[in-house]
Amino acid sequence: MLGAFRKLRDAVRGDDGRGKAQGYMKPIDTDDIAREMKLREVGSDRGRQNLPPSNATTLDSIEQQITQALEGEWGWHGSDLINNLRAYASRLIAVSIQTELANLRLSATNTLARLRNAHHRAEAELGPLRETFIAYRDELADFQKKHRLKRAARNPANRLTTLGLLVVLIGFESALNGFFFAKGADLGLIGGIGTALGISFVNVIFSFGLGLFPMRWVNHRNWLVSIFGVIISIGGVLALIGLHGFAAHYRDATAAVGEDRALVTALTTLRTSPFALADLNSFYLFGLGLVLSASAIWKGCTFDDPYPRYGACYRRAVDAREAYSDEHAFLFEDLEDIKETTVAELDAGIRRIPLFPQQAAQVRAQREAHLRSFQTYEGNVVAAGNRLLALYRDTNRAARSTPVPSYFDTAWKLPRSFLTDTAVLVETADPSGSPIDPHTALNELRSLSKAVLDEYEALIVRYPHPTQMPS
Question: What's the Cα-to-Cα distance from 194 to each of 87, 185, 188, 261, 416, rounded to whole Å?
Fold first, then answer.
């Protein structure tokens, strides 16, 4: 008996195990089921045994197998129906104006909140930097106007390199001069380097300062300052020549009279016969000092812009601009992306919403067709069940010697229709609330897009990038 039930189930479902193909319900082949179950043979055999009894009021085992198999298949199809209705509901949500508007409204509201919060951040973080930049920028503009400067300031690439070079010059000159002063020094080479170190330090530092200050004053627009710079520069160069002349005479004096009397002797010979040197190395000492002085003067002149105070003024403006620009980029980089993304989403929604009513109507039409197909399928299940029961009962009746049970004349029905189930009614129910007019939704989305753009524009106008900041 169990094997017959399985044959019935397989015959109802088909070889693929599913009773429903995509888009339609698979028809039930009652002739095939009757052959598989041998209903005519079974009905005649049980009829000759007068089974079921004449007083029976419920279906016998064969009839129950038929109805249970059909009800099981019907229940399986009902579960698929609910799943398909949920898929239709998801598709309707995807083309729902209410859902689309709610999602886009939330996105725009979040973006507006972030933009408004950025106003407070900008006021606290960008505000002071902006004021500093404007102050230094205006100071630079006033300086350029006052001194008739139209070029950009010449800003040395690495000023620390210059300072390092000065240290190298002092060490190099001290080492070389030490050999020159070693002759006659009480401590020999060590004593000579000690004397040379003092002269070299004064030489390099004084020469660097001479190039950095008075020689650059010569370029000043004020002729009094320029003349003053010329005078100081000439005096400084003469002082350097005197320093190196003293060093050369001091070396000769050290070799001739010793370190104790060398200072007085050097001053005397420098005053009476400045160009008379006893040793060729003293001339070398004098020439080396002048070469290194010239190098230090050149480094001083190029340590900053040739025009006095222009480089410092220019650097203040550039540094303030970079500080403001870096903070501006840090704040506005994310805001720009958020603004662009939100506006793009709103524009996409404006393009999609006019298509939603037609798309929703198509989905509902497909859903209604599916429901009608299932309703037809339920009728086919009932008809197939009654045909199979009638075949069994007719053969049973013909073979009996006793009256058939009274329920033989009662048609079989499904216990209920899936179309009245709560799950089906929930999935096919229309959303609560009045529908939103597409034109109203489009106008709201356009207003939200404009609000986002206006909020961002207000922020960027108040805190513009340095390249867009008005003079």
Answer: 96, 10, 10, 18, 117
CA pair distance 291, 203, nearest whole angstrom: 11
Rounded to whole angstroms, the Cα distance separating 85 from 423 reads: 9
Residue 5 C-beta-side C-alpha neighbours within 13 Å: 12
What mean pLDDT do residues 295-310 have?
86
For 131-140, 215-224, 310-319, 462-471, which range has the lowest pLDDT when averaged over its residues? 462-471
DSSP state of 303: S
Q: How many CB atoms lie within 10 A of CB 28?
A: 22
454 has a pLDDT exceeding 50: yes
Amino acid at 210: L
Is the pLDDT score of 348 beyond 90? yes
What burial letters (b/e) apply to 268-291, b meaning 16+ CB within 10 Å?
ebbeeeeeebeeebbebbbebbbe
Of the candidates 436, 453, 444, the residue with the CA atom closest to the CA atom of residue 106: 444
What are the DSSP calls for 183-196, one per residue? TT-TTTHHHHHHHH
- Helix (H) or strand (E) holding 253, with range, is helix 223-257
CB 19 within 8 A of CB 78: no
Domain range summary for the chain, segments of one domain joined by +? 2-99+346-468, 159-304
**Considering only CA atoms, which of 81, 82, 41 is closest in space to residue 62?**
41
Lowest mean pLDDT among 41-45, 197-201, 274-278, 398-402: 197-201
Q: Is 344 in contact with 160 (CB distance < 8 Å)?
A: no
Count CA atoms closer than 13 A to 43's CA, side-chain side. 21
Strand pairing class (20-21; 24-25)? antiparallel
Sign of the Cα pseudo-torsion (30, 36, 37, 41, in order)? positive
Question: With 60 as the cut, is the pLDDT of residue 10 above it?
Answer: no
Q: What is the pLDDT of residue 163?
A: 62
Contacts 24+ apart (CB under 8 A), 214-217: 215/297, 215/300, 215/301, 216/301, 216/304, 216/306, 216/307, 216/308, 217/308
